[in-house]
Amino acid sequence: MFRRLISLTILALVALLASLTFSFAGLSPTNAHNPVSDKIAQTPLNLPQQEQQGRELFQQGKIQEAIEVWQPVAETYRNQENWLNLASLLSNLALAYQEVGLLTQAEQAITESLSLLPPQPTSRESLQISGQVLNNLGLLQYSQGDVQQAFNTWEKGETVYKKLEDNLGILRSKLNQTLALQDLGLYPRACNLLIETLELSPLNCQNPKLIATDQGNKNLEILQQKLNTLPAQLDSIQILTWRRLARLLRVNGRLNEADLILKTIFPRLSSPEDKANFLLHLGKIEESKRQFVQALNYYQQALENPLNLKTKLKIQLAQLNLLILEQQWQSAASLVSVIEPEINVLPNTHTDFYTKLNFIYQLKLLKQAEKNYRLNLNIPAWEKIIFLTDQIVQNTKKLGDKQAESYGLGTLGSLYEKTQQWSTAQELTKQALLMAQSLNIPEITYRWQWQLARILKSQNQRENAINVYAQAINTLESIKSDLVSSSQELLFTFQEEVEPIYRELVDLLLQPNQTGIISQANLSQARDTIEALRLVELDNFFQQACLVTNEKKIDEIDPEASVIYTIILPDRLAIILSLPQQPLRYYSSSVKAEDLETVTAQFRDSLVIRSKRDFFPLGQQLYQWLIQPLEADLQASGIKTLVFVPDYALRNIPMSALYDRQNQQFLIEKNYNITVTSGLQILNPRPLKEIPLLTLAGGLTEPRVGFPPLNYVQQELELIENFVPTDILLNETFTVQALNQNIEKAPFPIVHLATHGQFSSEFEKTFILTWDEKLNIVQLERLLQQPTRIGQAAIELLVLSACETASGDKRAALGLAGMAVRSGARSTLATLWSVNDEGTAEFMKYFYEELATKTVNKAEAFKQAQLALLKNPRYRHPFYWSPYVLVGNWL
């Protein structure tokens, strides 16, 4: 998959800049304002007509022609001392000058325009012109990258329009404020501003992962009621406002509301341009749902009518981006041949820069695909792409937009990187980086830091590369809360834009120096980097910076435990071992990432089929890679508990089933307890034996909404009741309301849910089934951590005994990790696949019997329960005893 943050960012900027709300004060022939005397003078009738002609040319993108029409009109107003109309026209000229890179003239025009306004405008005409000039001043500031100042200016403009009671002017100001808020990363605030403007409260823009289903339905009702009251005909500003709200709802993940707005208003549209833009956004919604065929259909419909060149290119580039995402290489190459001549005729204006740069980026992706897949796509050669990009950058420098220039220079640097022209690539990337840092734009800064680090690494400048990689990660860490809570459209694609930075740094840190040694400092930094990666990975899963870290060393948690960090690198499996009171140790197995993932997937598949026995050689191979290199050190240290921090592919397999062929033992049969965690930073350790084991147990035995019955769940819960005090909710009594009421009235340290559920790398597909609904992770969190529990002990153990990781999803265990950390429970016991529920009843009987003795910790009780099943001839196959995993605190 080739989607990239910079591509998404550019696409979003193209959409934003193309929809900037310009303000042209359409004053009828009137008197101009004299700064001193308020003298009013009549203007000839043909001047307003010429102004209107210039506006039409400007809106068509014919900027230079608009300037040529406006300049003589401005000179006439100046000769007539027609100050108000001159102020209005100069602010429009300033925008035009800015667009074509005449920065000095733009500055002079807006400065003169402001000087012609009365200090305290009072007449309706002077207030109208003041509002227009402030609006256009904000646009100039926005185009120059001064987003906060633009927002402040538009707020002042809104105040002026409020004095005029000019609802259209107020709406225009608020629309432009939303642009600034989005650039500042404040997407929910931008969305809520439009909701307030359209009087849609109590609708809000909260992340859909944080709202209940009934609240989502209420939001749709509120929207539908408002949309039903709209007139049959809407003016252009109303259309833009609703389209902008739909976009903001979409990028905040509120796809249903966005879809409702667009489909309700679409029949009211008459302009082909408006229809095309709405179809574009409908396509984006389908793309967000990963319904790519439907998305392409919308894009194709949008292109059926003749369109403005800029609108047409915007849709074609969205189409191209999707074709590349779907790896439809020949179709994408054919579309390039259509787009290229149209791109070449675009003028060198500010808004058109991002369109051109987006096209260059798509060309780069296609060139990469051509090489990677040995295709013949007839895409322009690298030399031509570099030449075109250099021209774009040179033109950008004339526009005065340093942010755009940083994008251009960085992109040009990336092209030289691709062609291995290292010194030029390094120089251009440094320029782009310095520019982004001076503008304080960290979401661009980290990109160029990463690019520079790669270039340094390619030139064997290892230490410098390590330092720059670390800087990129520090930049990411500083903005991750903004990124995960902001626009989904601008959100980084984690697996391609964030994770590689951490892994590439770890790869460098774990390479021996010239004497064959990896220093303790490098090992420590590599371990900390992996811990940080696990945290940001979970934040990305939730799209919310929600995890509280608690940095501790293994020595402080359990002197008889070791932590095993497994790191899958392209050419090897790296392992860092952390033992109490000892230096970190490093091991590696020479296996390619794709080979390791293949064996891991085959091992998992062999375990879930009870008739198979080919898990032995696969388990042995994994044992040789994962355990054998460090086995002697583990045995010498007297360790009792192995705490795995597994990498992606390794999370979907049970470590307990790794097989030592020499001793004919599964790993669980050795002298180790086995547990899993996402990292020590999110552990909250406390021994379970210190507290009473009051348990709330819920489960289903009857079929529900497509899920089969779990016949032995009642037996499972009754067996638990034999060992610990238990309140049971079964079938129709196992409802969300009943869970809530029980948790409110008593501080249960153990919550045991024997029901269907699924863990997935996609938040929306991770759930627990109750009698009346599916609970997602956030809903479960609210249930288990409700305000009435404040001051009570945390839930020590959450047991999910009939869940499974989603088949075909190699990162599915991320959902389990997410459930574990967000439930608020110190430990989670769950299953990797749908297990035999009779065997589960037996497992839980042994587990709770051990816990009830209060002489062992959770990890030891867990191990003894697995061994009890393993020794039972009925359950000897790993299908029965190995899917159980203990995640989190093992004490």
Describe the protein in words.
This protein has about 900 residues and is an alpha/beta fold. It has four domains: about 1-185, Tetratricopeptide repeat domain (Serine Threonine Protein Phosphatase 5, Tetratricopeptide repeat), CATH 1.25.40; about 400-540, Alpha Horseshoe (Serine Threonine Protein Phosphatase 5, Tetratricopeptide repeat); about 555-680, Nucleotidyltransferase, domain 5 (2-Layer Sandwich); about 685-890, Rossmann fold (3-Layer(aba) Sandwich). It is about 60% helix and about 10% strand. Strands 8, 9, 10, 11, 12, 13, 14 and 15 form an eight-stranded mixed sheet that branches. A five-stranded mixed sheet has the order 3-2-1-4-7, sandwiched between helices. Strand 2 and strand 3 (about 585-590) form a beta hairpin. Mean pLDDT is about 85; it is low at about 1-20 and about 25-45. Keywords: Signal. InterPro entries: CHAT_dom, TPR-like_helical_dom_sf, TPR_rpt.
